[in-house]
């Protein structure tokens, strides 16, 4: 049983950045305003992830890493109205199947925090010294996850991830993107090797201010705002103008608050820019789409984290049209 759970977990958690993405989404759902990530060996050895969100009630720790345990779907109606992607109850379970996971959490107005240690989806009854699990400890409001020895029990996967610098870059890239979508949240990331902060964003009041902090002020001067309200969905974003090119393309697509890989949209936008930029430049694209959750199916394939949008073609067409209008309007 543990083996099949581990295989399922390995499809949700592909690398350290997948852990960070799941934890990020949970922290944002928990109304965190400050998220601090610390990494050893690019997250392969240790991911320490701290938020100041609402915390987890001690009674819920017992089932926290049970598969399909979620507090976000008490009723079917909730699933439709909640507007979040985080309702599968699979992330923490998956993480606990492929790592050593310690959770320390405290609700507001509690006198102390609780710390729990998980293995294979379960609370380990007690540690070697006989201390209880979960145990009380001092703390502050919020939740800290410590994920150690990722893929210790999946040697092939572990060996395939040998470049900790590359894993580190994946995580920084993820934090950069989320910090644009959530400008009021402060993000930081550092390596535990040297305790130096490599990435920090303060809480700011707009996406544009956050883009300036993360990608540089020069870029913000080249951006065009897009985002008329359509009838069936809404979107907002910033795209670089047709005379500007980055060294590497940046595509930031969010749907209902979650970063997604949207290959078909990426392709369409990229060929649009290619047709406008004779030299084939690389654009900066940040698009935040809000779709009625009824029209989304995020559960098609948990492993691929693909979403299925009804009327996807229609939405892409609308987005493209509005981008093209903006680009041609301003490039003449
Ligand atoms: P899901 O997000 O799909 O509900 P997860 O496995 O990601 O499933 O998380 C399980 C549950 O743990 C969440 O529903 C939530 O109640 C709780 N939780 C996880 N992370 C946090 C956090 N950072 N702060 C508060 N509660 C959390
Ligand atoms: Mg989640």
UniProtKB/TrEMBL annotation:
Residues 211-328 form the DNA mismatch repair protein S5 domain. It is found in: Nucleus. Belongs to the DNA mismatch repair MutL/HexB family. This is DNA mismatch repair protein MLH1. It comes from Galdieria sulphuraria. The lineage of its organism: Eukaryota, Rhodophyta, Bangiophyceae, Galdieriales, Galdieriaceae. The chain holds residues 28 to 359 of 767 of the full protein.
């Amino acid at each position: 049983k543990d083996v099949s759970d581990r295989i399922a977990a390995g499809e949700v958690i592909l690398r350290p950045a997948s852990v960070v993405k799941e934890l990020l989404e949970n922290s944002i759902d928990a109304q965190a305003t400050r998220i601090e990530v610390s990494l050893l060996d690019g997250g392969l050895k240790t991911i320490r992830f701290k938020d100041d969100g609402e915390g987890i009630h001690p009674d819920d720790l017992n089932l926290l890493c049970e598969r399909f345990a979620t507090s976000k779907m008490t009723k079917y109606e909730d699933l439709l109205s909640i507007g979040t992607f985080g309702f599968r109850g699979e992330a923490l379970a998956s993480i606990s199947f492929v790592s050593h996971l310690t959770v320390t959490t405290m609700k507001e107005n509690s006198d102390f925090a609780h710390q729990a240690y998980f293995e294979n989806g379960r609370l380990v009854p007690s540690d070697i010294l006989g201390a209880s699990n979960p145990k009380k400890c001092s703390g502050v409001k919020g939740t800290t996850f410590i994920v150690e020895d990722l893929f210790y029990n999946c040697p092939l996967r572990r060996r395939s991830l040998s470049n900790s610098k590359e894993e580190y870059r994946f995580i920084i890239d993820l934090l950069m993107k989320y910090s644009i979508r959530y400008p009021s949240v402060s993000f930081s990331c550092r390596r535990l090797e040297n305790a130096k902060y490599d990435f920090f964003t303060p809480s700011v009041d707009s996406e544009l201010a956050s883009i300036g902090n993360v990608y540089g002020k020069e870029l913000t001067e080249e951006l065009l705002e897009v985002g008329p309200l359509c009838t069936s969905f809404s979107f907002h974003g910033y795209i670089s103008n047709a005379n500007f090119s980055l060294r590497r393309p940046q595509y930031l697509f969010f749907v209902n608050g979650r970063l997604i890989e949207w290959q078909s949209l990426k392709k369409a936008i990229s060929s649009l820019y290619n047709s406008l930029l004779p030299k084939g430049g690389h654009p900066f694209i940040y698009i935040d789409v809000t779709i009625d959750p009824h029209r989304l199916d995020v559960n098609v394939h948990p492993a691929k984290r693909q979403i299925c949008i009804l009327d996807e073609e229609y939405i892409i067409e609308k987005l493209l049209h509005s981008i093209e209008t903006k680009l041609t309007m301003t490039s003449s």
